[in-house]
Amino acid sequence: MTDAITYDVVVIGAGPVGENVADRARAAGLSAAIVESELVGGECSYWACMPSKALLRPVIARADARRVPGLRDSVQGALDVSAVLAHRDDYTSHWKDDGQVGWLEGVGVDLHRGHGRIAGPREVTVTGTDGTTRTLRARHAVAVCTGTRAALPDLPGLADVKPWTSREATSADQAPGRLLVVGGGVVAVEMATAWQALGSQVTVLVRGGGLLPRMEPFAGELVQEALAEAGAEVRCGVSVTAVRREDGVVTATLDDGSTLRADEILFATGRAPRTDDIGLETVGLEPGTYLKVDDSLRVEGSDWLYAVGDANHRALLTHQGKYQARIAGAAIAARAQGVPLLETDRWGAHSATADHAAVPQVVFTDPEAASAGLTLAEAEEAGHRVRAVDYDMSGVAGAGLYADGYRGRARMVVDLDREILLGVTFVGPGVGELIHSATMAIAGEIPLSRLWHAVPAYPTISEVWLRLLETYRG
């Protein structure tokens, strides 16, 4: 064991969240080190956001082209699967992190490869692949940015089946002939969309009553209709009770006693925190749990430990984790500089208010589903006096020009007491690029009376904003 190396900030986990915490610390003049046991760039770069969207982009582009007169006849053939997978591989840098490592070096962050474990207050040990151990000490803060892993159910025979998780689904080198997808959330619907289009026969098995249960109900309904039209089967209200693999074929037993056979089975049934072996017990915290934090992302009960991104379970989205990293970095720097009073009030510089009020998300299916802020049910449960305003997006001129037979729906959730927006949902082709306008309206708490003066360009899909406001006014 060598002597301890001291930094102002030590970050465990070099995904996008950890990278941003370290970057913000360096930008504030603090020294920073980051510890990573896998690839610098994390889950998003290699097994989640980037590869999944690279797989889905040709699927969505072809679907859009098939709705355009004069073009649809030219794009009726199958996708070039090899080209799609090669494009995916380029976007993951072929699972090499040289570029990300170079970025860390460029901003002056030291990288320590190995498994990081908290060894007490402000202390982290790093065990390398060769078994050597070094100790890092933090003057001001240790940030846990270890993310999550796929959560697998406790099913008989599951380990022997070697099921796909999100990692295998985004990195597979060929399309399975038959694919079972267990789950109804974002990973399930995106991967069902991608692999059905790439040649697999997909069956989606959903325990609940529909897809995308965290969004407005119509989002899941429209996505389910589109999956069925693409040739996939979606079965709701069913559970897998056992699985086995024989001669390469997976057999799944359902709770009604029936069985389904496939070449691969993907379990997209949630996430679990990667905090089980990072030394939480040395500082009185329970391993394997999500860490509870305040709005500056500091772990409750601590004056030095931060949990940023998925590890705190506030909003399991890359962009939201990076937002938290910017807030945490600013808070760490302010405290290190002895700032007597942080701006932790609502929407303050050191408060991750958007985690509660203005989280945006895009589901890259066909049609796309995009939301920001609260759903109607969430707003009502929070005690707000609200009204939902809906609009059929096929009535927007820009939508009709975008695609023949455009199908989509928009909803805004209005706080009737303050006449501001609490939530917005769009479902339809091309709506992913609309959602930031909703996010700004919600985060800015812009009164509807002022939004009336935000004139959308004609003829664009954005004109849905005018139609929603007109519907609200009556």
Question: Your description of this structure?
Answer:
- The protein has helices at residues 16-27, 42-47, 49-65, 81-91, 98-107, 158-161, 166-171, 186-197, 217-229, 318-336, 354-357, 376-381, 397-402, 435-443, 448-451, 464-473; strands spanning 5-12, 32-36, 110-113, 115-120, 123-127, 133-144, 148-150, 178-182, 201-206, 233-236, 240-246, 249-254, 259-262, 264-267, 271-273, 305-307, 360-363, 368-373, 386-392, 409-415, 420-428.
- It is of the alpha/beta class.
- Strands 1, 2, 3, 4, 5, 6 and 16 form a seven-stranded mixed beta sheet that branches. Strands 17-18-21-20-19 form a five-stranded antiparallel beta sheet, with helices on both faces.
- Helix 1 packs parallel to helix 10 (318-336) and helix 3 (49-65) crosses helix 8 (186-197).
Strand and helix map with partners:
Elements: E1 5-12, H1 16-27, E2 32-36, H2 42-47, H3 49-65, H4 81-91, H5 98-107, E3 110-113, E4 115-120, E5 123-127, E6 133-144, E7 148-150, H6 158-161, H7 166-171, E8 178-182, H8 186-197, E9 201-206, H9 217-229, E10 233-236, E11 240-246, E12 249-254, E13 259-262, E14 264-267, E15 271-273, E16 305-307, H10 318-336, H11 354-357, E17 360-363, E18 368-373, H12 376-381, E19 386-392, H13 397-402, E20 409-415, E21 420-428, H14 435-443, H15 448-451, H16 464-473
Parallel strand pairs: 1-2, 1-6, 2-3, 6-16, 8-9, 8-14, 9-10
Antiparallel strand pairs: 4-5, 5-6, 7-15, 11-12, 12-13, 17-18, 18-21, 19-20, 20-21
